[in-house]
Amino acid sequence: MVRKTQLSNGIRIVTEKMPGVHSVSTGIWVNLGSRDEEPHEQGITHFIEHMLFKGTAQRSALDIAKALDAVGGFANAFTSKENLCVHAKVLDTHLDLVVDVLMDIFLHSLFAEEEIEKERQVVVQEINMIEDSPEDLVHILFQQHFWKDHPLGAPIYGTPESVLALNRSKIMDFLGRRLAPQAVLVAAAGNVDHEAFVDLVAPHVAFLNHTRQPPRRQPPQMFPHYTLLPKDLEQVHICLGFPGCSHGDPQRFACHVVNVVLGNSMSSRLFQEVREKRALAYSIYSFVNSHEDTGLMGVYAAVAPEDVTETLDVITAEMDAVRRDAITASELSAAREYLKGSMYLNAESTDARMNRLAKNEFVFGRHVPLEEVEEAIDAVTVEDVRAWFAQHYQPENTAVMLLGPVESGAHGMAAA
C-alpha cells in the first residue's frame, strides 16, 4: 500500500508497505541536480553529496559510519542531472536510527573548510578516474556536444577547475538559493508504517518553513554533430544518438520497446548482428537517457579502428530497417515480456521501490501502480513503435562521436 502526506511547509513523505520483508529502504530526495547549476557552479551539487557524510554538529564522519555499521545498515548518496538523494537500508527495527542519521547529515552537515579542502582532491581524482574509462568518457563527452551549451550537457561532477574553486561560502550560498522545501521528498519502502514514519520525519524538518520556488528548468535544443576525438586507446569508442523520450512522455513505452529490440538485450538486432554474426565488438548496446522534459536514445560500441566504418554501416542499416519496416510481432511480444519481467523483478527490492516512489512523485505527482505500467506496455503496437522511431530517428539529425585512434581508422567515414 502506498501512502502520501504533505507537510505544511510543502515537504512530501511517501511510503510503501511491502508485506513479508524485514527491511526498510529510506531516501531523502531533492528535485535538484546538475542541470540546475550555473556555469560557474558546475559540480557543486555532486560535491555537496560528497560532503554530507563528512560530519555534523552531533556526529563526526566516523560516528556516522559507525552508527550505520553497528546495525548492519548500508548508506550512500547519489547525484543525477535532476536529483540529489541520500539513502539507507536497514532492518525495520532500526528505522528510527536511520531516520535520525539521515536527517542529521541532510540538515546539519557542517561543510567544514578543512573537509572541503580534502574532498576537492577526492573529487578531482574521481574525475581523473572517469577520464581513464573511455566507455564512461565517451558518453559524457557525447552529451556535452549533444546538449551544447545547456546544463544537461555538463558533466555531473563538474571539471577540475570548477571543483577546485569551490569553498564553504559558495556551497552555503547555493543551498540558500536552491534548496526549497517544496523540492524535498522523503520516501520509504519495506516493512514501514506510514503514520509512524511521518511522526519520525516531521519533527526534523518542521523548521524548514521558508518559501522559495524551485529553479525553472528550460528544455534543451539538440545539436547534430560528427565529432572525432583522438585519444591513445586500443579501440575506437562509438557513441551516436538522437532525440528520445522524457520521463513522462505518453509514447515512452514505444521508445523502450524499440530500445529492447534494437540493442538493449542479448537477442537484440545489434547484439546479434554486430557481435554474434560479425564479431566486430565485445560491447554493443542501445540506451535511453530520459529527463523531465527531454530524452536521448543512442547506441554505443567499442571496436578495432579498422572496423569503425563497417560497424557504423551495420548500426545505421539496422536503425533504417526499424524506421522503414518496423519490428515484427514476435519481437514486440518478446520486448513486452522483457520490460515487464525487468519491472517486476526490480519491484522485489525495497531500494527499487523506494526509488520508484520518489521518481513517480516528482514526474507525475502520484503513485503509478505496476499494473498500470504493465497495461501501457501491453498496449504498444508494432505501428506505435514504427511511428515513434520514424519521428525521432532522422539520419540527418543524428549525432555521432568517435573516441580513440580515429586518425587512421575513421577518416574515410568522416569524409563520406
In short:
With 416 residues, the protein is of the alpha+beta class. The protein has 17 helices and eleven strands. Helix 3 runs parallel beside helix 8.
What does this structure look like?
With 416 residues, this protein is of the alpha+beta class. It has 2 domains: 2-205, Cytochrome Bc1 Complex, Chain A, domain 1 (2-Layer Sandwich); 226-415, Metalloenzyme, LuxS/M16 peptidase-like (Cytochrome Bc1 Complex, Chain A, domain 1). It has helices at 44-51, 61-69, 95-108, 113-131, 134-146, 160-164, 168-178, 194-205, 252-262, 269-277, 308-325, 329-346, 350-364, 370-378, 382-392, 406-409, 411-415, and strands at 2-6, 12-17, 23-30, 74-79, 84-91, 184-190, 226-230, 236-243, 281-290, 295-303, 399-404. A 6-stranded mixed beta sheet has the order 1-2-6-3-5-4, sandwiched between helices. Strands 7-11-8-10-9 form a 5-stranded mixed beta sheet, with helices on both faces. The chain is globular. Residues 409-416 have low confidence and may be disordered.
